[in-house]
C-alpha cells in the first residue's frame, strides 16, 4: 500500500480497520485534557474496561461466600486457572494441557530451569543473547553459581557483529554448533526487548536439540504479540509475563508452557507444591507428591485469584479477536509508523535510525529508534505533549503501536508532535 502522511489518509485506514472499535475497550490516561498516544504496551498494557467486572466478581464472592467461594462462586476459585487453558493455548500455539498460569515471569524461569538446566561435568553451558533483559542475566548468573560454575565459564552470549544492531541467525546457529557437546541449555528472549528483533524460534530450537540441549524461550515481549507455534516447534519450555501485550495489570501472573513430551517423564526434577498435586486427591493431604498430568503439575502454591481475574478478562478478549487478526493490524500499523518516521526525518535536521529489523518477519509491535542529534529533552517533550513512550540510554525511544488500542490517526499525530519537538 502507498501510504500518505496526512490526517485524512490515517482516518481512512482507521475506517477500514476491523479492530478499531477495540480502542473503546480500554482506559487511556489523559495529558492536557486529551487522551494520550500510548506507545508503552511493551512495558505495561492499558487497562481493559471489562477488567473491573472480573475483579469485582471475585471481591463480591469473597464478601458473600468467604472460603466457600473456592467451590460455590460462579467461577470457583478451585479451578479458576483452568479457564486459561484453551485461550492461552491458542495465543502461544500449544495444546491446552501444555500451558498453565502461576507466579511471575522470572520466578517461573527459575522453576523451569530446575527441570531443564541439568548441568553435568561435560555439558553445563547456557547460550543466551547479548543484552538480554537484565532479569534474565541475573537469573543465568545465579543459576550457574548455584550449580557450582562461574558465569564467565558457563554463560555464552551470542553477540552482534561490529556496527550492527541485531543478531544474525547464522551467528546463533554457528555458536550452538561451536559449543556443541558442552551445551546444556539454549534460553533466549523470543523478541529482544531493546531492539524489537524477533528470533527464528523454530530454527534455533531445532539446532539446540541437534546439539543435545534443551531449548526454552522467554516470551515476555512475544506472547500476545507474535504468532507462536510452541508445540509444533518442539520447544521444551517457555514462560511469559501477562502485563505487557496481554494487559493484565502491573506485575501480574505469568504463563508457562511445558511440551507434552515431558509430561510423563518422572525422572525430570521439579520443585513441588500441593497445587500441582493430583487434583482429585489434593485434600487427602497425602505425604508423597503425585503431579497433575500436564503443565499444571508444575504449579506449587494456591493461585492468586485476584491477580488472575484481570488476566482472564484479557485472554477472553484475545479469544474473541484471534491472533491472525491482531497480527494483520500489527503489521499494517507498524509499517505506517515506520513510514511516518521516515517522512518526518526528511523534514528535520536530526536523523532517525530505526534499529529494529526492517523485515516484517523479524519484527513485531515495536520500533526502536536511535535519535541522532537528539537527547532526553525530546523524550520529555513527547511525554509533556501526550505521547507516552519509553527512553533507553543513550538516545533510543521504543515505540510499540499495539494493535488493540493504537490507531492509525495516533501514528499521524505522533509524527506531528515529534516534528514540533525537534523544531521547537
UniProtKB/TrEMBL annotation:
Pyridoxal 5'-phosphate binds at residues 105-106, 133-136, 218, 221, 243, 274, 302. Its cofactor is pyridoxal 5'-phosphate. The gene is kynU. The modification N6-(pyridoxal phosphate)lysine is found at residue 244. Keywords: Hydrolase, Pyridine nucleotide biosynthesis, Pyridoxal phosphate. Catalyzes the cleavage of L-kynurenine (L-Kyn) and L-3-hydroxykynurenine (L-3OHKyn) into anthranilic acid (AA) and 3-hydroxyanthranilic acid (3-OHAA), respectively. This is Kynureninase. Belongs to the kynureninase family. Homodimer. Transmembrane segments: none annotated. Its EC number is 3.7.1.3. Residues 90-250 form the Aminotransferase class V domain.
